[in-house]
Design goal:
Length: 173
């Protein structure tokens, strides 16, 4: 796939949540991860990130929004439960994007929202855990760019023939 994405959080305070975000970013193939105005202890992050993602995915800690240094062609996408936000299932993800999530007991700051090119929301009744929101957003991005076939009309997976299995898995009869 062409393009790239990054994942970050503004004002995150719980190291276990940051660790889960880093692990999720790594699992989905993020190009980098970041935090803005985070208050966490790094050694505690590793308890939630057993994959040691910072060894595999660059991680940037920015003290404030002014210090953020995203690539020129990178679109900042805020994930926030607001009335004005676009529902995630209706959103076309940018090819080059950095997704930013708010702190655990609050929202993205107005300053961060103003910096975002897009604001999307996960259509839930109330906010979910920030690391869960990250996983849902990256899963949606995967569906958006993944090249998966359309879902079948009936419950279950797509109907395949033995020839399809041979092509996909290199199996020979």
């Amino acid at each position: 796939m062409r393009g790239y994405f990054a994942v970050g959080a503004e004002g995150i305070s719980k190291p276990m949540n940051l660790g889960a975000i880093l692990r999720t970013a790594h699992a989905f193939g993020a190009s980098f991860a970041f935090s803005v105005n985070a208050s966490h202890r790094v050694r505690d992050v590793y308890q939630a990130d057993t994959a040691k993602s910072v060894s595999h995915v660059p991680y940037y800690e920015w003290a404030d929004i002014g210090a953020m240094a995203l690539p020129d062609n990178c679109q900042l996408v805020g994930v926030e439960l607001t009335d004005e936000a676009v529902d995630l299932p209706a959103f076309r993800h940018p090819l080059c994007a950095a997704y930013v999530f708010g702190r655990e007991r609050g929202s993205l700051t107005e300053e961060m929202q103003a910096r975002c090119q897009h604001i999307v929301k996960i259509p839930t009744k109330f906010c979910v855990n920030v690391s869960v929101a990250c996983a849902i957003t990256l899963y949606d991005r995967t569906l958006n760019f993944g090249g998966f076939p359309e879902r079948p009309l009936m419950p279950g997976g797509p109907q395949t023939s033995p020839d399809d299995a041979e092509k996909k898995f290199g199996m020979h009869r």
